[in-house]
Amino acid sequence: MLVIRDAAALRAATQGWKNQGERIALVPTMGYLHAGHLALVARARELAPRVIATIFVNPTQFAPHEDLGRYPRDEAGDIAKLEAAGCDLLFAPDVATVYPPGFATRITMAGPAEGLEGTHRPQMFGGVALVCTRLFGLCAADVAVFGEKDWQQVMVVRQVARDLALPLTIETVPTIRAEDGLALSSRNAYLDAEARQRATVLHAALQHAATRLRAGAGAEEACSEAEARLSEAGFRQVDYVALRRAEDFAQMARLEAPGRLLGAAWLGQVRLIDNILV
């Protein structure tokens, strides 16, 4: 596997593949890889003969009070995992490579970026849109693969690709979970043993709410019940439990079409998110 850190070397590698008529699949990550990331690599290998993974902890999507400086990192371990997974190239740039001196472009998002994560992390989706657009171009990607755990992010990236007529498709992979249902996430490393056990309640609460929705309960009632379960389980703050239409992220008062049930809550200083298809 090639490990490349500068844009010129990356361009040379991708141009060589393009000259041979080979498509490129991209897996953007922030590193500290787990089985969920490797599932994205496996799907990318099915979609294109060449696979690029990126590791870049993107500063433009973090607020000053968030965990940019302490976000978990293990580049040596990540390289070993990507090599074993059959990745062709790792692009691991520094900030100056992605955002060179004089970089002045910003992206303001509306549509699926509004509400939920957009309310609680208002800086996030503009930064996600910006870095993804940069990485799509730098890596000359024909397809990019994302995990469904960050469903609102998936909707935002699809909106950006559509609105800016970017020449690639966006594919997704279902959320990879531990045996007890917890969605795999790099931030799970922050959980101590007790919090790790309690964290499973997030998925269980969403499942219960989904059962209530299928039985005809309204979204407000089902989501309020899920929030109460989280509070009872020791989550110190519930940012939201909400139902959105899967197709376009529109709000629904009840389950009138395929939807996504999304939740975000805090265990101590650790913020967990999850969602399920309903």
Give an overview in words.
The protein has helices spanning 7-19, 35-47, 75-85, 95-98, 117-120, 124-138, 151-163, 193-198, 200-214, 219-232; strands at 2-4, 24-29, 50-55, 89-91, 143-147, 169-173, 237-245, 259-267, 270-277. The mean pLDDT is 97. Strand 2, helix 2 and strand 3 (50-55) form a beta-alpha-beta unit. The chain contains 10 helices and 9 strands. Strands 1-4-3-2-5-6 form a 6-stranded parallel sheet, with helices on both faces. Strands 7-8-9 form a 3-stranded antiparallel sheet, covered by helices on one side. The termini are far apart. The protein has 2 domains: 2-173, 3-Layer(aba) Sandwich (Rossmann fold), CATH 3.40.50; 186-277, Pantoate--beta-alanine Ligase, Chain: A,domain 2, CATH 3.30.1300. With 278 residues, the protein is an alpha/beta fold.
List the helices and strands and how they pair.
Blueprint: E1 2-4, H1 7-19, E2 24-29, H2 35-47, E3 50-55, H3 75-85, E4 89-91, H4 95-98, H5 117-120, H6 124-138, E5 143-147, H7 151-163, E6 169-173, H8 193-198, H9 200-214, H10 219-232, E7 237-245, E8 259-267, E9 270-277
Parallel strand pairs: 1-4, 2-3, 2-5, 3-4, 5-6
Antiparallel strand pairs: 7-8, 8-9
Helix pairs in contact: 6-7, 9-10
